[in-house]
Design a protein that fits this description.
Elements lengths: L7 E5 L5 H8 L10 H13 L4 E8 L5 E12 L2 H4 L1 E10 L8 H15 L4 E3 L7 H6 L14
Parallel strand pairs: 4-5
Antiparallel strand pairs: 1-2, 2-3, 3-4
Bound molecules: acetyl coenzyme *A (ACO).
Length: 151
């Protein structure tokens, strides 16, 4: 359908995106105490393993390239499905004042295309019930329930 508005750009995360990424992810969950050094080394790790990990940010070019969105997909190598691959979308966040402008839609579309380009036979994610409509608008269907063990 529509194109991403020309003010916005989706690009790979960089090691010095600390402030913008931490602020944006805070709409999703508690990021916790995180040093700049730990952030940078983690981003370097993700980038070194770019066949598995892809984290992208959306920047608003009309607002000094402020980070307004973050999202990830990681590619799981499986044995089933003839040693197929599954993409897992994780940690999607659009900053409060930018929600409702189709940025989430374009972020999911972008990450889903990465999964498809990497040869995944499906891309999956878990979400809260209140986000089901949003993911349906992104072309996803509800296939189950999330289970968790926390430590
Ligand atoms: N309920 C119903 N419809 C919705 C909702 C909702 N909660 N959110 C968006 N939509 C609809 C929009 O109205 C729009 O519909 P339209 O095309 O008919 O106009 C369509 O979905 C696309 O919406 P966007 O504008 O792209 O949504 P947005 O940019 O606000 O992003 C998101 C949605 C990511 C859920 C954002 O609101 C957000 O960051 N929320 C807080 C954090 C969060 O819940 N993240 C997702 C966690 S799940 C995970 O990470 C795998």
């Amino acid at each position: 359908t529509s194109q991403l508005h020309s003010d916005y750009l989706i690009r790979p995360i960089e090691a010095d995106d600390y402030e913008g990424v931490v602020a944006t992810l805070s709409v999703l969950t508690k990021v916790g105490q995180l040093s700049k050094e730990k952030f940078s080394s983690t981003v370097e790790y993700l980038k070194k393993h770019s066949d598995i990990y892809n984290t992208v940010v959306i920047v608003n070019q009309a607002k000094d390239n402020m980070i307004v969105g973050v999202g990830s997909i990681f590619i799981e190598q499986k044995i089933i499905h003839e040693c197929g691959k599954v993409g897992h979308i994780e940690d999607i966040a659009i900053s409060g004042e930018e929600q409702g402008r189709k940025l989430g839609y374009h972020l999911i579309k972008h990450l889903t295309e990465i999964g498809s380009d990497q040869g995944c036979y499906k891309v999956i994610l878990d979400c809260a019930e209140k986000n089901i409509k949003f993911y349906e608008k992104c072309g996803y269907t509800n296939e189950g329930f999330e289970m968790a063990a926390r430590f």
